[in-house]
Amino acid sequence: SNQVHQTPCSHSISGYNRILWYKQSNREFVFLGYMIGTSASPEAGFDIVGDASAGGTSTLTIKQLTPNSSAVYYCAANPCPFECSS
């Protein structure tokens, strides 16, 4: 069956409107995509929806679960530099 998995992430840091997603597998960090405000740029095989701003929730979706999906997933809130504010 086509199983998906969703992981939410939220923070309360004022002025931080970027969330980066990673997974840690075999001691390596793999970049999965990012969200700035409500605009997402996921890597292939993933979806990112929501709002990365303080008080919002950014949700990472793994589109197709495989044995390789077993990992520790991390989200990191960042201040967005001036050039990426809308």
UniProtKB/TrEMBL annotation:
Q: Which GO terms describe its cellular component?
A: plasma membrane
Please name one Pfam family that this protein belongs to: V-set
Keyword rRNA-binding attributed = no
Key words of the record: Immunity, Signal
Asked if Signal is a keyword of the record, the answer is yes
Q: Name one GO biological process term.
A: immune system process
Domain Ig-like, residue spans: 1-86
Q: Which SUPFAM superfamilies match?
A: Immunoglobulin
SMART domains in the cross-refs: IGv (SM00406)
Q: What InterPro entries does the database record attribute to this sequence?
A: Ig-like_dom, Ig-like_dom_sf, Ig-like_fold, Ig_V-set, TCR_beta_variable
Q: What is this protein called?
A: Ig-like domain-containing protein
Native source species: Oncorhynchus kisutch (Coho salmon)
